[in-house]
Amino acid sequence: xxxxxxxxxxxxxxxxxxxxxxxxxxxxxxxxxxxxxxxxxxxxxxxxxxxxxxxxxxxxxxxxxxxxxxxxxxxxxxxxxxxxxxxxxxxxxxxxxxxxxxxxxxxxxxxxxxxxxxxxxxxxxxxxxxxxxxxxxxxxxxxxxxxxxxxxxxxxxxxxxxxxxxxxxxxxxxxxxxxxxxxxxxxxxxxxxxxxxxxxxxxxxxxxxxxxxxxxxxxxxxxxxxxxxxxxxxxxxxxxxxx
Amino acid sequence: xxxxxxxxxxxxxxxxxxxxxxxxxxxxxxxxxxxxxxxxxxxxxxxxxxxxxxxxxxxxxxxxxxxxxxxxxxxxxxxxxxxxxxxxxxxxxxxxxxxxxxxxxxxx
Lengths: 243, 108
Fold this sequence. Notes:
The complex is a heterodimer.
Chain A: H1 3-16, H2 22-38, H3 43-50, H4 53-59, H5 70-116, H6 130-176, H7 193-225, H8 230-233
Chain B: H1 3-20, E1 23-24, H2 25-35, H3 43-52, E2 56-61, E3 69-74, H4 76-107
Antiparallel strand pairs in B: 1-3, 2-3
């Protein structure tokens, strides 16, 4: 007897008996065939060793374990729909936050390039001597790297959160309809230790560089302008230069 | 041997193996047919029955490559029932052995 013949005969017999969850039983035997065939047995041999499908079917008692009412299934579906709705809103917020972080990173990088390269598009960058501009430019570049690493980690987190949520969704449906459920997934992303260390080092380095250069840039500005409030001296933010 | 007769004992064997570690169906089938002369397919109805009685639970596990496998695991009720039935069976088997060997001696 071939595999298909065995399985269809078994399925027929089980259906005749009105056994619940015939598919589940059949899939067990299908797996048995798969394992045995991987060991090099022929389909006929495996079927012969499994035994007579009619006899096997008779050994399955109609246990009625999976008799789940339609009502419960519908309730679960409705509840899950409501949860999905709110989770969806939450997800939009999370993604929006990620986009904002990415935009922030790009803007910081742009400012850094302008400061160091003495580019002043639409006169957006207030006047200052070149030395503090370079130092502040480096600090902006570090800020850009810092927010980029934050963005990468956040993206990994959101991705894992989505996977975890979709597994929860599948599981809930599986349980409600009496199927076997896959295990839950954690919400924290599994990042390789080596990559994780690298991201951490980059983030730490950029924090230090950002704060040092920012403070240093301000001190240099104060010294060069001869005023604690150098923005007044250089006439930023609409202040008039007082001579 | 009579299949109904064997079935109760096979249930005990399945429980004993699952007490050691969680197994998937094929593993149990291979193990049993290695020790006892039964059709390979017999173990699946047993697993299903034990599960419906609440002695076993199942879970899926994704092993490297291939589709997820269905693992069987003993519940605390299963553990309890196993210990109880194991003791009963061993006691029973001992009595039967005494009876049958006694019969053998008389014939000699």
